[in-house]
Structure formats: structure tokens, C-alpha cells
Amino acid sequence: MNVLQVFLTGLSLSAIYALLAVGFVVIYKGTKVVNLAQGAVMMIGVYVVFKLNTGLDFWIVALIGIAVGAAAAVIIQLILSLSKSHDHLVATIITIAIDMIVTAILLVEMRDLMLYIPGPWADAVIQIGGAAMPVARVAAFATAILAIGAFFVVFRYTTFGVRMRAAASDPETAALMGVSGRSVALWSWGIGGGLAVIAGIFLAGFPGAGLPAFGSALAFAVIPAIIIGGMDSAEGAIIGALIVGFTESVSRYLVAAYAPWMGEQIAIVVPYVIMLIVLLVRPSGLFGSREISRV
Amino acid sequence: MWTRYILLPVVAIVLLSIPFFQPRDVQTALTSAVAFAIAAIGLTILVGVGGQLSLAHGVFVAVGAYGYIVLAGEPGVEDRWGLGLPPVLAAIGGVALAALLGLIFSPVAARLKGLYLGMASLALIFISEYVFTYVTPLTGGLQGRSVQQFDLFGIPLSGSTPKLEILGANIDGIARLWFIAVIALFLAVWIGLRIVRGRPGQALQLVRDNPTAAAAIGVNVQHAKAEAFVVSSAYAGVGGVFVALYSQVLTPETFNIVFSINFLAMIIIGGLGSIGGAVFGGAFVALLAFTMNKLGGTPLLPFIDQTGLNGIPGGTFSTIVFGVIVVLILVFEPTGGAGIVRRIRSRRAKPSPVAPPQQSHDTDSRGAVPEKTR
């Protein structure tokens, strides 16, 4: 294991985390809800891909899975919109309960089954300057840049993006100008859900061993990223994802090399410790708007 | 008034007579219900009365449990830490450790608002999960660690010696623990009611509803928030000591993220901010899985199978059931939802000179705006 290897691993992890983190942030910007059922949405999509991934073209299957994940997220938003309270904290607690329900159903359905999605790149590995890099992770990195890049272009330069930003920054005025908050909410949940499934497909493939029934908990690894970045900043989410991805990669390397007795799980914990420190210094993250603390 | 003089003794007598006509497994399940109920009272004081959202209540329960185990544990057995304290002192110590962790975390809690506090508390869950799994001298690692029996001045209260038989029923181990648990529950409810209805509760509610006004009339806001966290953690610690005692062997996987989130489910099902509600919610969540496993395979619930081989395990199915209940309550039960809004939101809502409160409410509920304008 060399420095380049640690760097590449960190970069590829960051790419997957960035997909998940931007998914959280889109939903948060659109509706001020932290969708703690993102992991459940991811698992639903990955489960569909896993079930259909027998002979059919991978890309078609992946698209179906992403669409199902987007639909699942939209359904959750529809459930939330039924709520009489219209409070984002209540909504967030509802998403925790939905996550519990979906995870329990998956446990019944999957038992010990692991959702492994090899993808067209299977377990191929390329050598970059003495470091081994799974092709799947290269693909994850490329996909993350494409997907997040496309999102930023849409967000910045299209009418739809303008509507979204308007509804996110001032929903009342936006509504008066004819922007439907409801459609913005549904679209942001759909996009967020789709991004989660894209990340999930990569998490379910090589070099991992597949996702277990309780794989939705993996989405919680991204919470430090969105908190460190600030929950309503997509740029912050990406920087948060980089911090978490590299922290995880570096601490995994350091623990394996110098302190194996600490156990690999420490790599999951370190980002949370960083998150607590950041929160003590800046209660709404590095790039989060102060408005949240006032709410 | 009649409830105090008639209902209370009747409930007490019924509860205390349970070991005489119920088998051991029911006694264990009921003891777990009491442990969860006591811990849930703490969370409802914190979230319901104090307006501070914590997703990590289970961590404080775990600290109480492991605190008892380590303090009461025999020193020098294998490589496990143990102080060999008398169990009574160990139980008090376990509660104190849980309260101490609450005190340590309270500055974070006082500084953060709403969702950020909820997310910060997630950090506690993952950090503690790591500690419980990898610090094996403390917890015994994945194999778990056996729990020292409870005694009072040398009289064993959770073992089976000396043999004690009353009215033909063998009052041993869990039955003796059950008696202590019932007494603890009554004390916990009594103290909880005094806190909520008395001056501390009123101060806490004022802090939640209007921190500026609270400070103006001389309430120390930071102190009140920290006290709420400490009291809540102490309750969790008491629950944790009972969890340790009825479990006999404790493994770290008991205290996973679902364990923590279940406490949120308990106080929501029971009705937020209500001590009685917390007791009901705690008992409901604790007993649902047990009841379902008992009824599993019978014509009533043919699809439940404890082993999970021929059907759905009761625990998994009850998770689905109370997940659905939580969603339904929060979506359709206006006071439930409104209660949370009032309690968690109001501590953050500062009266703004520009915008009237009503308007700031609308600004936050993105989903509500288009429906109103359409």
C-alpha cells in the first residue's frame, strides 16, 4: 500500500459519497427535510437491479433501478406531504421510521443474501503507477463527475434550475411568481433518490462483497459529509464527501499499517469525530447558511 | 383523586403479583418493558419537554448497562476490567456514568439546533458502537460479557440463592429483579411528574418556547438545557442497569442504531412530552416482539416464526408494525405532529421584528406553500 494507492482509494470513495451527499442536499434544498430513508431508497433501487441483472443489458437494468429509486423517493415525499404538520423535523423523523420499515422488510426478503452487482467491468483492475485501481471505481468516479456535473448545469442554466433555486431560497415569493413548490419538491426527491441508487450500484459491486439487507445503514456514512459541508450547500456536500472519503481511506491505511488492533471500523468513526469538532466550531457546517440556525 | 387512592394501589398489587402466576419468560419480558419505560421517560423529558432532538438515547442506556457491568465485575477475570464494587454502588455508578456522558455532550447539544443536533447525536451512536465492539476489556467484544448479579447488603436480589418460596411460587432471579423494577418504575414516574409539572419543568418549557424571556426572568438557559440532558441520561442509565440485570449476558449488538431509534418510536407512540405516554410506549415497543413470538405459529399469527426459518421473526415484524404506527401518528395525528412542532421548533423560533411568527412558519414548510396559494 503506497501513498498513491491511499489517494486513489480516497478519491474513488469520495466520488461515491459525493453522489449520496448531493442526493441528500438536493432533497434538503427542495424541502428542508433530511431524508434519512436515503439508504432505504438506495437499497430498493439496488435490489431491483440485482433481481433484473440476469441476462438483460446492464445499462437498461441500471436505468430501471435508478428510476425505481427515484419513484420510491417521490412516494416518500408524497407520504410526507400528507402530513398535517408541514414541519421538516417531523418529516425527518417520518423518514427514519420509513427506513426502519424498508430495512425490516428487506431482512425478511433477503435474509443472508448479499446484493452483488458486478457491472460490465466485473472485477477488472488497472495499474496506475504501482497502485491497483478497480475499473469499477474508475467508472464510479467518472459517473459521479458526469451525474453531479449534469445536476449543476441543470441547476445553474435551465429554467427548471431557476425554479428550484427560487423555491429553495424564498418559497412564498416563488409561489407567487408561479413556481409550483409541489413539483419542485417532487423533482428534488426524484433526483435525490436517483443519485442514491447510482451510488448504491457502485457500493454493491467490486471491490465490495455486495450489500447486505441492512445496507441502508451505509447511507449514514455520508451524514458527516453533508453536516461538515453544510446541509443546504451542494458544493459543501462535495467538499464534505472528499473530506470523509479521504479521512476514511487514510485512517484505514494508517490503522492497517500501524495499529491493526484498533480494528477497521475506526475508519467509519473518524469522520463522525471530525463532524462533531466542525459542529462545535461552526454549528451549521462549513458552507451551510446561517438561516438554518435561526429557524 | 380517586385514581391516586384506588387505582394506584390496584395497579401496584397486580404488577407485584405477576411472578406468582406468570412464567419466567413473561417476567423477563415485563422487566425489559420496565427498563425501556424508565429510559423512555428520560427521552420524553429531553425531547418532549426540553425540545432537544436526540437520536442517540440508546447510547446512554448502554453506558448505564456497561457502567454497572464494569463497576460490579470481578477484577482480574481474563482480561476484563472490573472494580468488584458492591452491586448497589455499581448500579448507582452506572447511572452516574450515563449522566456524566450527558453532561459532557450537553455543550454540543446547547450549541446546536434542530436537525443539526439530531445529526450530531448520530455521531454518538457510531462512536459508541465502535467502542462497545472493540474495547473488549470493557464489553467482552462480540462474545459479550456476563453480568454480575445484583444484591443488597449481601442479600442476593437477582440470583436463585437462597431459595425463596412464597405461596408455592419460586421467587428467584428474575422475580426478585421484577419487584425492584416495579419499585424503580413508580419512583421514576413520580420523580418525572414532579420534574415536568414542577418548577424545573416549567423553566424548561419556557426555555423551549422562548429562551429570551426565560433568560430575562432569571432562568439560566444553558444550565436548564444541560440539566435536561443530564436528567434524561440518568433515566437512560437506570434503564440500562436493568437491561444489564435481566440480560445476564450482554453483547454489543444489543445497542445498535435500531435500539437507539426505538426510543424515539416509544415516545412518539406514547405521545410526546407525556410521562405516562413514555411508559406506555416503552412497554408497547418492548412487549410487541415478545407477544408476536409467543403467538407465532398459532392461527392468530401463522406467519410469525421466532427462528425466522418458517416465517417472519417476531422482532422484525414488530419493527415493521411500530414503524408503520410512527408514520401514521406523525402523518395523521395532528396533535402528535403538532406537539413535536411546538416542542422542538419553538425553542428555535425567535420572534423576528420583520416577519410575524406565522410567516416564518410558512417559509419553513415548503410543501405547504403551493397548496395554500393554489
From TrEMBL, chain A:
GO molecular function: transmembrane transporter activity
Topology in the lipid bilayer: Multi-pass membrane protein
Keyword set, alphabetical order: Amino-acid transport, Cell membrane, Membrane, Transmembrane, Transmembrane helix, Transport
Protein name, entry field: Branched-chain amino acid transport system permease protein
A Gene Ontology BP annotation from the UniProt entry: amino acid transport
A GO CC term attached to the entry: plasma membrane
UniProt cross-references to Pfam families, sorted A to Z: BPD_transp_2 (PF02653)
TrEMBL record, chain B:
Residue span of region Disordered: 347-374
Pfam families: BPD_transp_2
Keywords, in A-Z order: Cell membrane, Membrane, Transmembrane, Transmembrane helix
Cellular-component GO terms for this entry: plasma membrane
Family annotation (InterPro entries): ABC_transp_permease, LivM-like
Localization per Swiss-Prot or TrEMBL: Cell membrane
Biased composition (Basic and acidic residues): 361-374
GO function terms (MF aspect): branched-chain amino acid transmembrane transporter activity
Topology relative to the membrane: Multi-pass membrane protein
Segments crossing the lipid bilayer: 5-22, 28-48, 55-73, 85-108, 115-135, 177-196, 263-290, 320-341
Top-level taxon of the source organism: Bacteria
Protein name as annotated: Branched-chain amino acid transport system permease protein
Organism expressing this protein natively: Microbacterium thalassium
